Amino acid sequence: MTRLVGLPPVIGPATRLLVLGSFPGVASLRAQQYYGHPQNQFWKILSALWAVDLVEMSYAARVEAVRERGLGIWDVYGACEREGSLDSAIRNAELNDFAWLRQQCPRLQAIAHNGGESFRHAKHTQALGLPVHPLPSTSPANASWSFERKLLAWRDVFVKYSLA
């Protein structure tokens, strides 16, 4: 299996809430964009929360909108081996350096894990001494949750940190 390397974090000094996925899927790695699969609901959920059509924006504009609002995006894994895009296929994963993240984001107030695979590593993010929240995965593989149900769960967390 080929060793895959993830994407750099989308963060800044104003980051208050960090959303951590597990590891970018094939479409995201190919495009070098977080949540690059057209069926992933991440950008649709943020669009609904912020009343801005992020889906129609360029990726650079999306990233700018995220940073402006104090949101950060990263993954729990910095590298792994995997065939396809499913989290269940991840092997020999290497965790990202969350202590480094705390230094880069002095205003960070909380971590939100996008999906179960990411949340399996909550003990590592809780070591930062911040609140940690599980969120339903925005992946198309999480078809058991409707868009509306996902949006409600995401809104609850975003409102707590004045991001919605």
Provide a short characterization of the protein structure.
The chain has 164 residues and is of the alpha/beta class. The chain has helices spanning 26-31, 42-50, 59-68, 98-104, 116-119, 122-126, 147-160, and strands spanning 3-5, 17-21, 71-75, 77-81, 91-95, 110-114, 132-135.
- Give the total of domains: 1
Give me the CATH fold name.
Answer: Uracil-DNA Glycosylase, subunit E
Q: Summarize the biggest pleated sheet.
A: 4 strands, parallel
Elements, N to C (H/E): EEHHHEEEHEHHEH
**Number of beta strands:** 7
Using only C-alpha atoms, the radius of gyration works out to 15 Å
Q: What CATH first level would be assigned? A: Alpha Beta
Provide the fold topology.
Elements: E1 3-5, E2 17-21, H1 26-31, H2 42-50, H3 59-68, E3 71-75, E4 77-81, E5 91-95, H4 98-104, E6 110-114, H5 116-119, H6 122-126, E7 132-135, H7 147-160
Parallel strand pairs: 2-3, 2-6, 6-7
Antiparallel strand pairs: 1-4, 4-5
What would your notes on this structure say?
There is one protein chain. The chain is of the alpha/beta class and 164 residues long. The protein has one domain (3-160): Uracil-DNA glycosylase-like domain (Uracil-DNA Glycosylase, subunit E, 3-Layer(aba) Sandwich). Helix content is 34%, strand content 20%. It has 7 helices and 7 strands. The chain has helices at residues 26-31, 42-50, 59-68, 98-104, 116-119, 122-126, 147-160; strands at residues 3-5, 17-21, 71-75, 77-81, 91-95, 110-114, 132-135. A 4-stranded parallel beta sheet has the order 3-2-6-7. Strands 1-4-5 form a 3-stranded antiparallel beta sheet, with no helix packed on it. It starts with a strand and ends with a helix. The model has no long low-confidence stretch (mean pLDDT 95).
